[in-house]
Amino acid sequence: MLIQAIAFYFFATIVVASAVMVVMARNPVHSVLWLILAFFNAAGLMVLLGAEFIAMLLVIVYVGAVAVLFLFVVMMLDIDFAAMRAGFSRNAPLGLLIAAILLAELLLGVGAYNAGGLTLGTPDGTAMQAADTSNIEALGALLYGRYIILFEIAGIILLVAMIGAIVLTFQPPKPGARARQDVGKQIRRRPEEATVMKSPEVGQGIEL
Amino acid sequence: MTAFFQSLGLPYEWAWTVATLAGILIVSLLVMFSVAMVIYVDRKVLGAIMLRRGPNVVGPFGLLQSFADGLKVFLQETIIPSAANKGIFLIAPIITFTVALAAWAVIPFDAGVVISDINVGLLYILAISSMGVYGVVMSGWASNSKYPFFSAMRASAQMISYEVSIGFVLVCVVLFAGTFNLSGIVNAQQGFGLGLINAYAVHPLLFPMWVVFFISALAETARAPFDLTEAESELVAGYQTEYSSMSFALFWLGEYANILLMCSLNTLLFWGGWLPPLDIPVLYMVPGIIWFLVKTFVFFFMFSWIWATVPRYRYDQLMRLGWKVFLPMSLLFVAATSGYLMAIGHFA
Known about the structure:
The complex is a heterodimer.
Chain A lengths: L1 H23 L3 H21 L3 H25 L4 H6 L1 H27 L20 H12 L1 H22 L13 H6 L2 H4 L14
Chain B lengths: L1 H6 L4 H38 L15 H11 L10 H17 L18 H22 L3 H32 L4 H7 L18 H14 L11 H4 L9 H26 L17 H22 L5 H29 L5
Helix pairs in contact in B: 2-10, 2-11, 3-10, 4-5, 4-10, 5-6, 6-7, 6-8, 6-12, 8-10, 8-12, 10-11
């Protein structure tokens, strides 16, 4: 138990400290890197809870893909922090409101937790899975059994969002623009079609 | 190993701690030693294909060349560009190196010879290898120089693209094996092909997936013909341009440790890991770790063979291959594999 306690306080301290640094860091790229550290240590907390599947997904999806793109965008943007700080007093009421809502949600969460855990159960609604089945099987049985409709709806919403993003950014080729690449044509091309052999006289130029 | 330390009279917790630390130390040292040796092999193979001799001066047959190089970079001065972002510049190679070593924690070298035999071993490897891109991106940005930055952008796009198809290939393997545990996947391959061959790659649904995995592994480790992140004709040396001495060596070691990891994953997922190629009792006389090392070495040889033979891809060709060829193909095979397994009653 001692090792678990040490590990918990280690991960938790780093999560909180790096979350603070996300806000405090002057350089936006540093902020994103602190955020990544926070994600990674949150995954450590998940492992301590025995949710190793969620922990791995957190690292694969958030650290491995989302945060890379995030870092990418922040590196490319030229953010002027002085200009952003200038609007502090104007945005302060909105910020306070959001903070108050988050605090209320947090209190609600603690209250709900104290009221007792949510009964999840199996697809046929009998009892909780035995503790020795692996995370992945337990999650799969719930997602594809009891919550199949919610799961499918979430999938369709994501699909719609994806198609929407493509439609918004798609630009039809302008008339007169360069023709599209035809990979087959590029591969079929032989040296004889692309090059010519010339042996000019000394002192003479060549016509091309 | 815990049992061994317990027999020395240590209580369980201490025996476990000492055994794990010893395991980590042994595996890291062996991986580093293998990296030094495969760098030598790489240069020798390249030399042989180009009709050169390769390294042949330091030690017998030049065997000590990598160690001499290591000693040399260790004694060199670390140069930090004055415009670089110092902290991130120094952390980046450490991340690459650490991540490359951390993935070895779940690789089984033989039945039961593994530091941590976790249920989600394959996902752990995916997670850790997706962290590898940070070393490149951070070094490219922190160098404050345009060629490393180009390289970092290329690397992040390339690694994310090929991770997607690698993920789907792994799903196919997991569907067959029914577990994410790497030892479990290897055991499921015993006698898989006609009750005789210990390999997943002989199955008509899994062989194309192995080919996709092998090519994606080349792209994921930024090996030729996909080494666009350090394309010397365009980007000097890519993200490593501003690095010197040990910080450069850490990138170098991490890169080769990643290549070895991909070779061993090929072995574990598709070619039966520590099991002998054929399910014949005589072949089990050879220790499993020998089979594992031989198979991994064969894949490494293929990596250097490809490096010496195939010209570099253009960047748009690389993206096209990842998104327009491998992604639809692996998606199709995930559907085909699960359909096939349902049809033959694999999950019943």
